[in-house]
């Protein structure tokens, strides 16, 4: 199954005691569309992505949190795509839905 959702808002929390529970919740309107967890950089292998409760649950290294939050803050529209087979996800992408023009602070969306 192909899963895709336009991400319109997000919430994230950083757990001071257990930083590996740092989570970003992705929403399409008021509907939870995905969760992102961040795991320690020294963990030998990331937890496998999974499909749970109708949405993807993705795992990244803690070092990726800055880039992901920056994208959520500064880019629009953002989409979450995933290839789902039962509860397993073979691939997932969080990104923009069009080619970006070169340079920061672009104001006009290309056609």
Task: Write a brief caption for the model.
The chain is mainly beta. The chain contains 1 helix and 8 strands; from the N terminus they run ββββββαββ.
Structure overview:
The chain has about 110 residues and is mainly beta. The chain has one domain. About 10% of the residues lie in helices and about 50% in strands. The protein has one helix and eight strands, in the order E-E-E-E-E-E-H-E-E. It has one helix at about 65-75; strands spanning about 1-5, 10-15, 25-30, 30-40, 50, 55-60, 80-85, 90-95. The strands form two sheets. Strands 2-3-4-6-5 form a five-stranded mixed β-sheet, with no helix packed on it. Strands 1-7-8 form a three-stranded antiparallel β-sheet, with no helix packed on it. Strand 3 and strand 4 form a beta hairpin. The longest helix is centred in the middle third of the chain and has 10 residues, at about 65-75. The radius of gyration is 15 Å and the shape is globular. The model has no long low-confidence stretch (mean pLDDT about 90).
- The helix content, as a percent range, equals under 10%
Give the spatial strand order of the biggest sheet.
2-3-4-6-5
* Major beta sheet summary: 5 strands, mixed
Given helix and strand content, the structural type is mainly beta
The SSE string, one letter per element, is EEEEEEHEE
Quote the beta fraction: over 45%
Count of helices? 1
- Beta strand count: 8
Cα separation of the termini: 29 Å
Tally the structural domains. 1
Mean pLDDT, nearest integer?
Answer: 89
Low-confidence stretches: none
* Estimated radius of gyration: 15 Å
Identify the overall geometry: globular
């Amino acid at each position: 199954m192909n899963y895709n959702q336009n991400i319109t808002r997000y919430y994230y929390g950083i757990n001071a005691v257990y930083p590996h529970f740092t989570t970003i919740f992705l929403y399409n309107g008021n509907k939870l569309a995905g969760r992102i967890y961040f795991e320690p950089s020294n963990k030998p292998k990331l937890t496998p992505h999974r499909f749970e409760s109708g949405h993807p649950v993705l795992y990244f290294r803690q070092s990726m949190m800055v880039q992901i939050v920056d994208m959520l803050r500064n880019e629009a529209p953002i989409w979450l795509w995933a290839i789902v087979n039962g509860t397993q996800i073979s691939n997932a992408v969080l990104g923009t839905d069009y080619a970006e023009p070169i340079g920061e602070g672009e104001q006009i969306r290309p056609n």
